[in-house]
Amino acid sequence: MFADIFNTNRVHFVRLLSTNKKLHKRISSSSKKKRKRFCNFFRILINVDVARHCKIEHLQMGYDVNRFQGEVDEELTCPICSGVLEDPLQAVMCEHAFCRGCINEWLSRQPTCPVDRNALTTSNLRAVPRILRNLLSRLSITCDNAPYGCTAVLKLDAYNSHLEECVHNPKRPFPCEKGCGFDIPKDELKDHNCVRELRSLIVKQTEQMGQLKTVLTDQQLTINELKRELQLFKDFMRAMRVSNPAMRAIADQMERDEVIRWSSALARARVTRWGGMISTPDDALQLMIKRALSESGCPPHILDSLMENCHERRWPRGLSSLETRQNNRRIYDNYICRRIPGE
Amino acid sequence: MANMAVSRIKREFKEVMRSEEIVQCSIKIELVNDSWTELRGEIAGPPDTPYEGGKFVLEIKVPETYPFNPPKVRFITRIWHPNISSVTGAICLDILKDNWAAAMTLRTVLLSLQALLAAAEPDDPQDAVVAYQFKDKHELFLLTAKHWTNAYAGGPHTYPDCDSKIQRLKDMGIDEHDARAVLSKENWNLEKATECLFS
User: Fold this and answer.
1) Which residues does the UniProt record annotate as the domain UBA (chain B) (predicted)?
2) Which residues have CB under 8 Å from A336's CB, separation 6+?
3) B33 and B109: one domain?
4) Which of A53, A54, A56 best tests the B interface by mutation, with the highest count of B CBs <10 A?
5) B113 and B134 in one domain?
6) What are the extents of the domains in chain A?
7) Cα–Cα distance for residue pair A238/A209, rounded to 1 Å
8) Is residue B194 part of a domain?
9) pLDDT, tens digit, 9 for 90 and up, residues A170-225
10) Using CB atoms, which residue from B2, B99, B102 is nearest to A106?
11) Least CB–CB distance from A117: residue in B7, B68, B101
12) Would the CB atoms of A82 and B102 count as touching at under 8 Å?
């Protein structure tokens, strides 16, 4: 199966590979089992890619002229699909207008204007003038769901919002009445089987869970390995520090630098009401602050001392009571404050 | 077949039917099957050309990717023209190949083919034999083209001399079309044609 897809889509495959050399390396150097997993992954990618390239049936194209009331001026039709312009774009130079879907499809094959064959690329496309948009929005169109009984006739500008809520749309999802929890398109409701759907969901999820489990085990292993290495490093550093005074100075300097780097990475803040500051945080608040600090990248060695100093009894004298804070608040403008992101 | 291709062909069909050219009987188009993938076109030989008075039938195949790719067009009626194969009816015309543009229609294609009949491009030939005759023995080319138009497309000019030479070869058991093709190629030299057929 894979071989077939691979052979018929060799070009896509090679292109996919060449877009990611690292991936390529990983594939060629990985085990057989892993390679199979990659191939499955590519099969999905390729199918998506092929679907996009081979099918133009699902292309967004203009509205069929026959669905409009009265004559539609030829100027309002797309020269590519010959329908009424849908989401139109025009060429900057020659000002020929096309449906967005149509012109993009054409330009993906040939970089010329489909009418006069002058050079044209997607970057030379722009929105059509307001007058054209207005003329289009005034046209009256019958609903796409007319074959299913919708008799609405709408102005083109109100058409899309109608489509969304049209009760005659056979694809409009309805919740299953038997309680499986699925939303089923109206026209598929009669063939809907709760057990089958749920079963396939379970199968899919089991598969996903299996994949996730392998990933999890892999990562657990990596984490353990890294932990061991980290511990080793810590021990090594400690030994260096103890045995060599110069090293101790370097380590202290590094810690100081780390604090400066962290604090300068934070945005400047301005305290507007020093009097209204919470000066006696309770345990829950302290926990929250601690979490916000560590998430902001606060160096761990100052985290505990920062937390110990967060109660007003440990604050500097000039800040230590509500009264002093209110008296001194003008001087506080000289403080540099930083905002810790978080709630 | 892709939705867009069908809806476009349907509209183009109507366009041709409404056009002035159909009133003047210079082009015609009809359906071959119900799926709109195959059509039959007909163009009148343009005036003041060796093809005048003839009706030339074309096979038109519409690809699924139409109008992003050109329709495949071929002459069913045999024709003596530098840009059209005298054997297969294949056409050498830029707009049916690289110079196709999505805004072109069946009507413009048929009119372009008519224009091609009026203005051959012997330097970009489909049929090298015809192109050589066109450039080198133009009088003979005109005669041959008129004769083919008469034989296959109902043209008015008859050439008893040509007919008798063909009859001579037919009497030797050669198929009429083969006889005409070889004689045309050999500039109506019966001896050379015979040599060519029997060597």
Assistant:
1) 161-199
2) A268
3) yes
4) A56
5) no
6) 2-54, 268-339
7) 42
8) yes
9) 777 778 888 888 888 877 777 888 888 899 999 999 999 999 999 999 999 999 99
10) B102
11) B101
12) no
